């Protein structure tokens, strides 16, 4: 019984590099992002991982990251399910703005609250709580059954859709999640108990 869930944030995107709020916008990966994705795949391969199914978002940076990981793993034909529920948090009116320009306009504190707080949404966008309200039910209904059936499941998604998932899996509070960052291309491995609680968590850092 593997009951293993692996979460990977996409590699660096063009807009990560340009320091722009991205959300549901759809830039591709940079060369560095491609390398991060391949590296994540190599690390998983070195760890002996072989996946039964993969899940990703409707955004190309996560999909490409998944493809590159699967190439490294020798699993290019793996069944893959794409769903909008795993998309990045919608950054609303901030999408496309430079993060430093936003700090100048609205102040460091306000921008930090929009980026990292649990329940304060950016203007016209989703809070982490809103993001969790679509990610968590999707996890429960679509992803978790595959894990509990004994599978090894790969999820390639985004900084904030994964923060929402990690918050629930790790049982973090709204205050604790503020300090939680998800690095690009670094696999987070969860082994689950039969009752769906977390038995073990491991971060596969380089
Ligand atoms: O959507 C974005 O801009 C990034 O992918 C994540 O942004 P954050 O670091 O502001 O959460």
TrEMBL record:
Pathway: Carbohydrate degradation; glycolysis; pyruvate from D-glyceraldehyde 3-phosphate: step 3/5
Catalytic-site annotation from UniProt: 10 (tele-phosphohistidine intermediate), 88 (proton donor/acceptor)
Binding site for substrate: 9-16, 22-23, 61, 88-91, 99, 115-116, 159-160
Alphabetical GO biological process terms: gluconeogenesis; glycolytic process
Entry-linked Gene3D superfamilies: Phosphoglycerate mutase-like
InterPro entries in the cross-refs: His_Pase_superF_clade-1, His_PPase_superfam, PG/BPGM_mutase_AS, Phosphogly_mut1
Enzyme Commission identifier(s): 5.4.2.11
Catalyzed chemical reaction(s): (2R)-2-phosphoglycerate = (2R)-3-phosphoglycerate
Keyword Isomerase part of the UniProt annotation: yes
Keyword entries, A-Z: Gluconeogenesis, Glycolysis, Isomerase
Chain ranges passing through the membrane: none
Residues carrying the site annotation Transition state stabilizer: 158
UniProt KW Isomerase keyword: yes
GO terms of molecular function: phosphoglycerate mutase activity
Subunit: Homodimer.
PANTHER family per record: PHOSPHOGLYCERATE MUTASE
Similarity section: Belongs to the phosphoglycerate mutase family. BPG-dependent PGAM subfamily.
Function: Catalyzes the interconversion of 2-phosphoglycerate and 3-phosphoglycerate.
UniProt name for this protein: 2,3-bisphosphoglycerate-dependent phosphoglycerate mutase
Organism the protein comes from: Aurantimonas marianensis
């Amino acid at each position: 019984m593997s009951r293993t869930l692996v979460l990977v944030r996409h590699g660096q995107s063009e807009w990560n590099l340009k320091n722009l709020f991205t959300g549901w916008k759809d830039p591709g990966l940079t060369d560095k992002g491609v390398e991060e994705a391949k590296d994540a795949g190599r690390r998983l391969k070195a760890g002996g991982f072989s996946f039964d199914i993969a899940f990703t978002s409707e955004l190309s940076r996560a999909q490409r990251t998944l493809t590159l990981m699967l190439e490294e793993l020798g699993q290019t034909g793996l069944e893959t399910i794409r769903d909008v529920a795993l998309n990045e948090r919608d950054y609303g009116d901030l999408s496309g703005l430079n993060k430093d320009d936003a700090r100048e306009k609205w102040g460091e504190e306000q921008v930090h609250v929009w980026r990292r707080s649990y329940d304060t949404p950016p203007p016209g966008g989703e809070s982490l709580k809103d993001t969790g309200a679509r990610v968590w039910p999707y996890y429960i209904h679509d992803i978790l059954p595959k894990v509990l059936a004994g599978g090894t499941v790969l999820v390639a998604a985004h900084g904030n859709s994964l923060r929402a998932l990690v918050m629930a899996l790790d049982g973090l509070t709204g205050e604790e999640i503020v300090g939680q960052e998800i690095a690009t291309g670094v696999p987070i491995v969860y082994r689950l108990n039969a009752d769906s609680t977390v038995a073990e968590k491991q971060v596969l850092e380089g």
